[in-house]
Design goal:
Helix content: over 70%
Distance between the termini: 14 Å
Oligomer: single chain
Largest sheet: none
């Protein structure tokens, strides 16, 4: 029971720190790019509505709720980031405890880098981050490929790092490579109103922010765990 409480406590604090850090980085880097892409998307939608005979009557149809721009949108973004960060921190800390736990912030950073490789780098090679108005394949197909890639990459890394066996190491490499040999689902068309340079900058920034997020998450979790162990 004490171990479970410690895992939750460590994950909650590390997730809070990493989630808030990611929110700050997003508003400094990716949010301006998203707003630019939304401007291209809205311009395209306005053009399509203008071409419809009953555009004035159908403008509001199908629009769902969305947080208002400004503080409300920022607050919901920060809340979502913190909740997500706590969730992945629980997973990271729990898995690390199976292997003896993080002994300090340095070891935590390595666990964070492993999380980045599994949850961002590997799936991002096939499904890079997308701006609004970017073409994409069907959602269910993308979700299946993403889950399969994350699972295969995670298991592959475990076999490579924690199993000192050549056959298992080969199997681990095969698992990591397999999803990319199959290939991620692709959209029917790659046409988009978003400039290619804007999409490229977004992919780079999202990847960098994710890397920093995982390093902060793992490092903070390792630091907090080492302090908790000293007090026990």
């Amino acid at each position: 029971m004490a171990l479970f409480r410690n895992i939750v406590f460590i994950a909650a604090l590390a997730g809070l720190v990493a989630g808030l850090a990611m929110t700050a980085m997003q508003y400094a880097g990716t949010v301006p790019l998203i707003l630019k892409a939304e401007a291209f998307e809205n311009a395209g939608l306005a053009h399509e509505h203008a071409a419809l005979p009953n555009a004035a009557h159908s403008h509001d149809e199908g629009e769902g709720w969305a947080p208002a721009d400004g503080f409300e949108r920022s607050a919901y973004t920060a809340l979502a980031n913190v909740v997500t960060a706590i969730g992945v921190a629980l997973l990271l800390v729990a898995v690390s405890e199976i292997k003896g736990g993080m002994t300090g912030w340095r070891q935590g950073v390595f666990w964070g880098l492993a999380g980045f490789a599994v949850f961002t780098l590997a799936p991002g090679l096939g499904l890079p981050p997308e701006l609004p108005a970017m073409p994409a394949a069907e959602l269910d197909k993308r979700q299946i490929w993403w889950i399969a890639t994350v699972s295969a990459t995670g298991l592959g890394l475990v076999l490579l790092v924690f199993r000192q066996s050549l056959p298992l190491a080969i199997l681990g490499i095969a698992l990591i490579v397999a999803p990319h040999l199959v290939g991620a689902p692709r959209p029917d068309s790659f046409e988009s109103p978003v400039p290619e340079a804007l999409a490229h900058d977004f992919v780079v920034l999202v990847s960098v922010i994710s890397l920093v997020f995982w390093v902060v998450l793992g490092g903070t979790a390792g630091f907090i765990r080492s302090r908790v162990q000293q007090m026990m």
